[in-house]
Structure formats: structure tokens, C-alpha cells
Amino acid sequence: MLSILRSLVQEVNSARDLQEALDIIVSRVQKAMNTEVCSVYLLDPASNRYILMATEGLYKDSVGKVSLAYSEGLVGLVGSREEPINLEDAPAHPRYRYFPETGEERFRSFLGVPIIHHRRVLGVLVVQQRESSRCFDEGEEAFLVTVSAQLAGVIAHSEATGAISGLSLTGEETQDVSFNGVPGSPGVAIGTGVVVYPSADLDVVPEKPTENIEQELALFQSAVQAVREDIERVANRLASQLRPEEQALFDVYLRMLDDGALPGEVAIKIREGIWAQGALKQVVQQYIRHFEMMDDLYLQERVVDIRDLGRRLLSHMQEGEQKLQEYPEHTVLVSEELTPAMLGEVPKGQLVGLVSVKGSSNSHVAILARAMGVPTVMGLVDIPVNQLDGRELVVDGFEGQIFASPSSDLRAFYQAICEEEDELIRGLEVLRDKPCETTDGHRVSLLVNTGLMTDVVRSLSHGAEGIGLYRTEVPFMIKDRFPSEQEQREYYREQLEAFAPNPVTMRTLDVGGDKALTYFPIEEENPFLGWRGIRVTLDHPEIFLVQVRAMLKASEGLNNLQIMLPMISNISEVEESLHLIYRVYHEVREEGYDIHMPKVGVMVEVPAAVYQIRELAERVDFLSVGSNDLTQYLLAVDRNNPRVAQLYHSYHPAVLQALVRIAQDAHSVGKPVGICGELAGDPGGALLLMAMGYDSLSMNAASLPKVKSVIRSIDREWAIQLLEDVLLLDSPHVIKSCVDLALRNAGFGRYLRPVKSSSAAMAEQAVS
């Protein structure tokens, strides 16, 4: 059965359209199960009826004509119950519904299983048999369930392709087809889709040796030089749209093209006798494997950059002709995997939106998009990319949604949002230099999370009061070895100088297991619970000591450094870390550096730390909650896994209760506590955190003006009452709705996504 299933999935995947896919399914399943009838009924979103879409065994003329209401007949019963129904004598069942045009009166045995994709019932797969004595056995039922589960995604994709083409299952015209992804950059854009494809495919490069090593080396070096020139050209083209510091993203690309980085490793492979394209493939795939194992989303997204570089190098080696792409006046760039270099190909002033099937809010593209103010949606599932080329698209970067072929009503609705956002941003600029305090005088520090100078520039322009989290992994990621003390010192000094005299909190190196460096590989069966964070650096004090020494020396004359320890789960880790930090501090002082002892804090990311707050706080100067990781660990949910992402919710009662406890326990021993994560950048979440007593909120720079505006407009007692009300609720979705409603009633509705019109609400019922 396994080989039959594998062959079936491959055949269906290669189908040209939905109808062909369904015809393959009914034909192959009927043959595999040796049954007389196999049919597929799909649920039409427009009419909410099940339509017979393909059959082997029933009359073919009934296809597309026979339909059942949502809960009608045995098909409707299977769909509404969302489980298989296996009957020996179907006509005797009270829910049996007879359609003479199908000729099904001859068949008595019935087995139906639902086709479900991402909790949405797509349809029902049915097999039938003439003999009443035959009841489909457990093995056959299990096989049909397996077929349904395997093919649900393919059917969803094919169905979406048809919907984008403007046709429903019944052949009627459709509009406002929506797809859900992940917000990458806020805002709304309306424009024409332009689909861009990778220039070359490394996966299909064959493995073969070479005898002419020098020729292969020369070919590869020529490709490296050509790609370097391409990237410099793109960077220059974007120079007028970006601040000079924001072009640091392209420096990351260029550093990876240094002889000591990726090209050096490829050259070694070539000298070992592998042809240039194969050597490039091996090195790029090795880089990708290491990066994909990483837990930190910001660093995990570097896979996109490495893959893009590999494709560009391969393209030059293959001497493929570069197709001249035309860009309309309002371009929405669409790709399986967008890269920063792709953005630079669009002429100035014509790029209005971005859509990427892969990626998250931590990708380089998302960072650039936020810097450029381009609405972006990432991480779309089951979207037929090639169908979006040339179509009018609405990109909703607030909700992470796109709409294909919008109706005039939907277009007008989103056009109004565009105008409102422009007006709102202009109004918030006046708050830049004003303090973040409530109307009754309660002060909260607003900080930012950074990793590149790009983030720093944007943060300063939005009035950030310091850095709540600087990811020190960046200088380690762009090297093919551990960076030296001097190299680290230069990176850290940049950040410290930019914000002086405001505090800059640097997290010590957070790698290991799921975040392996290419030159420091770690393989584990369960990396999420393995050797990572502080566990790695304490096991390798030579790494930890050099990093702390570089931080301390970089702070000379500024003294705004704060050091934060990641993934702390017990007291001994804190005590051992402090011992090493004090040791380095005294050594650096003895070398003649005039520095102050920095404040040292711990990150609360592991549930174990929640129950040791007092003990931890007694040993350090401050605490900072890593709310994203803490939420994932508390709920046992990877928010980047589309199968369970809907279970990840920052407003989950368990998360809020943990956050309340952390703030109370930290203050009970007189220590400040902050938070860095998505919840802090949400206006409603920021109000709850402020009410809990958090002293500082660290967030993405783009979120800062709205959070400041809301906090400056309310008194703390109002926020405390809101917190007390929502802590009595037991559903994260109800809690979020209550917080949003309270904000709207208080006059802050303009900071939330406006309520959708009936047209948009109807669109959400379409393919998503």
C-alpha cells in the first residue's frame, strides 16, 4: 500500500489542474482498493454545498451537477462529523440521500472519509460497492484515511489555483480570494503582482569530478566577481531610498563572498577534484543545513541569503541569459523566497508591496521592507505563486493577508486604510522626543531589539531610549571562524556609541544545538532541549571570556553597557557566569582600561526560571523576559510550524499569569524587570505589561510610536483594571478581543486594524 500511495501522490502533484488531480485520485483509488465506485465531493465555499467533482463507477454526466447541502446525506454527515463513516447497507441509513442521475442505487456498501486541510473541511472521498455483504475492513478504511490526509494539501493548492483564476468549483466567477500568511512589514498596498523566480536551481546540479581544476577555479572566481558587482550595483540603486547605515544588509552579502568565507570553502572542494557547480552545491547545502537547525528566527532566516547567493553564483557559471523583467508602476513583488537583491531590481518608486511564500518577520527582506516602509506578507501556505503574475493584489501587512483580484468594494476599503495609515504616521512623529509616561505620571522605558546598524538607525529616528536586546550572534554568523576579540569589539562599539549615554543590553552568544555555527557544528536528537545558550558558553569559557572582554573594552568612555545571559535555567549558571565576568573586568582594568562594571542580568525564557525569579534577582542587577521563547516553551508550540502555529498565542492565560508572577517576584526583591518580544510591541500587550509593572518594554522600532502614543494617553489605573478583567478569562482569543475592544472604546481604534467591511468579511470565507 505504501508504494501505491507514494506513486499516487507523485501523480497528483504533477497534475495540471484541480480536475485532472481529482480524476487521477478516483481512478487510482478505485483500482488500488478493488472497489466498484470511488468519488470525490468538494465543498464549494461560495454556496457551502458539496459538489460531485470526479467519479469512477457512477454516471459521468452527474459530475458537476449533483450537489448536497452542507449537512445533507451521508456525504454531509461525514463532513459535519469530520470522521469516517463505514456502512454495510447505506440505503438503510436515515441520512441516506438518493440521486437517480448518479446511478448509485446499485451500490449498498459505503465508506466516506473527510478531506481536511489546516482544520478546514475541503470535501469527502467516497468508495462504494454493490454487494451488501461486503463491509470495507479496517485496513481499507485506514488506507482511505491516509490517502485523504496525504492529498489534502495538493487539493487545497489546486483549488486555490482555480479560485485565483476567477472561477469557483461550479465555474462561476469569483472575487476577493484571500490567502493567510505572516505579517512581515505593516501597512497596506494595492498593486500588480510580479512573480520572480530564482535564477538557477542548485538542487538539480549533478555530482561529477573534474580533471581541469584550474579551469573550474577560474570559472568560479569569475562568477564570484560578477555576483559581487551585481550586489554592489543593487546597493547603489537603493542608496537613495535607504539611509547609508541601512545598506549594511548588503555588506553581509559581500562579506559572505570574501575569500575567507563561502568562496574559500568552494575552492577547497574544487581542488579536491569536484567540478565547480557541484562544489558550490555541496558548500551551500552544508551552510543551509546548519542555519536551518537554528532556533533563533533572526539568524535562521540567513538561509535565504545563502541560498540566494548560491543561485546567483550558479546562474553566472551556467551563463544563463538573464530575462529582462518589466515592472508596472505599482509593483507587488512575489516569489517563493524573496531576497534583498530582488528588491533592488525594481525601479525606484515602483515597489509598493512584497509577498514571499517562505520566510518570517526576521528575514532580511522583512527587515529591509520595514526600513523602506513597504507592506509585506511572508510565510504563505499552499499559494500557487505562478498564478499571481499580472493580477491585481491587495497586500495586508497588518494581518498577514493577501487578496487576489479584489472587488471594487474591497479595493476602496483598503485604499481608505492606506490613507488613514499615512495620516497616522505623520501625526505620531511629534512624539519622538517626548517621554513615555501615563497621564498620571507612571514612567515606562521604551527600548528596541537590534542586530544590525539598520535597526539602530531606524530606532533612533523613532525615539528609542536604548537597546533592550542586541543579538551578538551577528558578527559570529558572517565569519567562517570565531571572530577575534578586536573584531567583536568594533561591532559592539558601533552599537554602544550610537545610543550613548542610553543603555545597550548585549546578550552573550546564544548558539548551540539548534543554532550551530557552520564552523562549530553540533548535532543532537532534540536540539530545542539540548546544548544551547549559556550551556555552550560555560562549557567553552574561552569563547565566553573573549566576548565579555570585547564588550568591556568597547564600553570604555561610554559605560552604557549591560550584559544579559540567555537561556538561564538554574542558579549555578548565573553564579558561574558572574565569576567569569568579574574576572575579566578586573583583568581589563589591570590592562589600563578605564571602565565601570556593567550591570548584569538574565533572560527569563525557560519555564524553570519563572519559579526562581527571587533567587535569580538576588544575584543580578535586572531581569528581562524573552516573551517569544517563553511562550513557545510554556505552550510547547513552534510558532513557525504551520501545523501548530495557530496554537501559539501571546495572550494565552498561562503566558499572562507567568508574566504577572515574574514582575511581582522581581519587584519583591527590588530588581527592575523588562521584556523583549512581540507582546511588548503590540499596543494592547504593552498596556497589560505596563499594568503588570514591567519597567521597560523592548520591541521592533516600527512598533514604538504607536505604543508610546497609547501609553501617554491613558492612566495606569485604567490599564490595571483592564488587566484584572482579562486575567479572569480562559481563552486567548477572547482576551485579545476584550483588549482590542477596550482600546477602541477608549479612542485608540486607529492603532488597530479597522473592522473589515462586509465585502472583506465575505472574502475571508473564500480560499485561505
From TrEMBL:
Range of residues in the leader sequence: none
Subcellular location(s) per record: Cytoplasm
Highest taxon, organism lineage: Bacteria
Enzyme class: transferase
Keyword Magnesium included in the entry's annotation: yes
Molecular function (Gene Ontology), one example: phosphoenolpyruvate-protein phosphotransferase activity
Official protein name in the record: phosphoenolpyruvate--protein phosphotransferase
InterPro entries xref list: GAF, GAF-like_dom_sf, PEP-util_enz_mobile_dom, PEP-utilizing_PTS_enzyme, PEP_util_C, PEP_util_CS, Phosphohistidine_dom_sf, PTS_EI-like
Cofactors (names): Mg(2+)
Gene3D superfamilies: 3.30.450.40, Phosphoenolpyruvate-binding domains (3.20.20.60), Phosphohistidine domain (3.50.30.10), PtsI, HPr-binding domain (1.10.274.10)
EC number: 2.7.3.9
Coiled coil: none
Family note: Belongs to the PEP-utilizing enzyme family.
Recorded catalytic activity of this chain's protein: L-histidyl-[protein] + phosphoenolpyruvate = N(pros)-phospho-L-histidyl-[protein] + pyruvate
Keywords, in A-Z order: Cytoplasm, Kinase, Magnesium, Metal-binding, Phosphotransferase system, Sugar transport, Transferase, Transport
Ranges for domain GAF: 17-165
